[in-house]
From TrEMBL:
SUPFAM superfamilies found in the cross-reference section: Prokaryotic lipoproteins and lipoprotein localization factors
Pfam families: LolA (PF03548)
Sorted UniProt keywords: Signal
UniProt xrefs under PROSITE patterns: PROKAR_LIPOPROTEIN
Organism phylogeny: Bacteria, Pseudomonadati, Pseudomonadota, Alphaproteobacteria, Acetobacterales
Domain of life: Bacteria
Name by which UniProt lists this protein: Outer membrane lipoprotein carrier protein LolA
InterPro entries in alphabetical order: LolA/LolB/LppX, OM_lipoprot_carrier_LolA-like
Database matches in Gene3D superfamilies: Lipoprotein localisation LolA/LolB/LppX (2.50.20.10)
Length: 210
C-alpha cells in the first residue's frame, strides 16, 4: 500500500486527475506574464529566468512530500528535461522531457505515460525558461535568504500551479524546492538537498523508461 501511495501522489500532481481548481483560486481571466507586477518582483523574476537558463545541469538528493506518504531519491535536471530516481520506499524511475512524463515502477514493471502539454510542470521544461507570454506569474515572495515564485498557464490557470523555491544567499540563487497543486487541489512537493550545479550529466539519465 505504501508503495502504491508514493506513485499515486506523484501521478496526481503531474495531472492524471483533472477537475476544478478549488482552493488555489486561479479561475477567471488571467494576466499574462509579469509586467503587471511591481518593479522589485519583475527584477526577481528576471533573476530566476537567468538562473535557470544559465544552468547546464542540477543534481540533488530529494525528499518528496505528498498527500499521505513520502519518498526520497536523486533528482537530475538539465534544460528541457529531468529525472527522478527513487530509493525509498522502493525503486522507481521517472523522466520528463519533450512534453511527456514517464514513470516506471521497478517493483512490478508497470510503466505510466502522461502528457505535460497542459500541466504547469511543463513550464519548467521549456527551453529557454520564460515566465512571460502565455505564462502567468501569480506570486513572488521573499524571506530570509529565500525567494519563491508561483506560475500557471495564463490561458488555463485552472490546470494547476507550479511554485519554485530558491535559496537566495548574497545574491546567488539555488533551486531548493518544487511545489505543485493540481486541478483538484492535490499537493506535491520536492525538497532538494546537497545541490550540485553544472556538473557533467550523462544523456542516459534522460532516456524515457520502457
Amino acid at each position: 500500500m505504501k508503495r502504491r501511495m508514493i506513485a499515486r501522489s506523484l501521478l496526481l500532481w503531474v495531472g492524471v486527475v483533472a477537475g476544478p481548481l478549488g482552493a488555489v483560486g486561479l479561475t477567471g481571466c488571467a494576466t499574462s506574464g509579469y509586467d503587471h507586477l511591481v518593479t522589485n518582483d519583475q527584477h526577481d523574476i528576471h533573476r530566476v529566468e537567468n538562473y535557470l537558463n544559465g544552468l547546464t545541469s542540477l543534481q540533488a538528493s530529494f525528499v518528496q512530500t505528498g498527500p499521505a506518504q513520502q519518498g526520497d531519491g536523486h533528482f537530475t535536471y538539465a534544460p528541457g528535461r529531468f529525472e527522478m530516481v527513487y530509493e525509498v520506499p522502493h525503486a522507481m524511475r521517472a523522466v520528463a522531457r519533450d512534453g511527456h512524463f514517464v514513470l516506471r515502477n521497478a517493483d512490478n514493471g508497470a510503466v505510466t505515460h502522461l502528457s505535460l502539454k497542459r500541466n504547469p510542470l511543463g513550464l519548467l521544461l521549456r527551453r529557454p525558461v520564460s515566465f512571460d507570454g502565455d505564462v502567468q506569474v501569480t506570486n513572488v515572495s521573499r524571506g530570509a535568504e529565500s525567494l519563491q515564485i508561483s506560475v500557471a498557464e495564463a490561458n488555463n490557470p485552472s490546470q494547476g500551479l507550479l511554485t519554485l523555491q530558491f535559496a537566495d544567499v548574497r545574491g546567488k540563487l539555488t533551486l531548493v524546492g518544487i511545489q505543485g497543486v493540481d486541478a483538484r487541489n492535490h499537493h506535491f512537493g520536492l525538497s532538494l538537498f546537497d545541490v550540485q550545479e553544472n556538473q557533467p550529466v550523462s544523456e542516459d539519465s534522460f532516456i524515457l523508461p520502457e
